[in-house]
Design brief:
The protein has 186 residues and is α+β, with helices and mostly antiparallel strands. It is 46% helix and 15% strand. The protein contains seven helices and six strands. A six-stranded antiparallel sheet has the order 4-3-2-1-5-6. Helix 3 packs antiparallel against helix 4 and helix 4 packs across helix 5. The longest helix is centred in the C-terminal third of the chain and has 19 residues.
Length: 186
C-alpha cells in the first residue's frame, strides 16, 4: 500500500473544499454570510453570519434562545471567509469545534438583539474562545468589516443573485425618484 504524505492530504482537502463542499453548503473552518432581505438592500455590508465546525456544519444564532444547525436563518450562504485552523490556540480542529459548541450553548440562553447581541456576536464569542489569531477582541464591527473584505462569493450565481436581490429596492425607489425629478422641472 502506498504511503500518503501530509502535503497530499492537505491538497486533497483543499480540492474537495473548492469543488464539492460549496454545492452542499459545507464550509469547514469558515465564517459564512447571507443577506437579510430589505436590511441588506439598504445597507449591503449588513447581513446574517454563522460559523462552521471543522466538518463544515453551519451554526448560527438565528433568534432569541435559538442557534440553528445547518439551516441558516435567512437561507443558504452567499459568501464565505475561510479561516486558518493553524491560527487557533490549542489543538487545532478540536479547539475550534469546542469553541463553536461552547459559544452556541451560551447563545441558546440569550435573547437576540439586532444591534447589540446578534449572530455576529455569536461568531465573535467562538473566535474569542479559541483565541483565534492570538486575539480575544473579536467583535461584530471587526467581523463585519473583515468578512466584507475577505469574504468570497460561493459562486458567480450567488453573486448575481445578491445583485438582483437589491433590485426590489430600486423598483420601490423609482417612482419616488421620478416624482422628485418632475418637481424640479415643473
Amino acid at each position: 500500500m502506498a504511503e500518503v504524505d501530509e502535503t497530499e492530504i492537505i491538497m486533497n482537502y483543499h480540492e474537495d473544499f473548492l469543488k464539492n463542499d460549496k454545492q452542499i453548503s459545507r464550509y469547514p473552518f469558515c465564517i459564512v454570510w447571507t443577506p437579510i432581505p430589505i436590511l441588506s438592500w439598504l445597507l449591503p455590508f449588513i447581513g446574517h453570519m454563522g460559523i462552521c465546525t471543522s466538518s463544515g456544519i453551519i451554526r448560527d444564532f438565528a433568534g432569541s434562545y435559538f442557534v440553528s444547525e445547518d439551516n441558516m436563518g435567512f437561507g443558504r450562504p452567499t459568501k464565505y471567509w475561510k479561516l486558518d485552523v493553524d491560527k487557533v490556540c490549542g489543538n487545532g480542529a478540536a479547539t475550534w469545534d469546542k469553541a463553536v459548541h461552547d459559544a452556541s450553548e451560551e447563545y441558546k440562553r440569550r435573547p437576540h438583539n439586532l444591534c447589540l447581541d446578534n449572530c455576529h456576536s455569536h461568531v465573535a464569542m467562538a473566535l474569542n474562545l479559541m483565541h483565534y489569531d492570538n486575539s480575544t477582541s473579536w467583535n461584530m464591527v471587526n467581523l463585519c468589516a473583515l468578512s466584507l473584505i475577505r469574504g468570497k462569493h460561493v459562486n458567480c450565481f450567488t453573486s448575481l443573485c445578491w445583485t438582483l436581490r437589491r433590485e426590489p429596492l430600486v423598483i420601490l425607489l423609482r417612482p419616488t425618484l421620478r416624482r422628485r425629478r418632475f418637481r424640479c422641472l415643473g
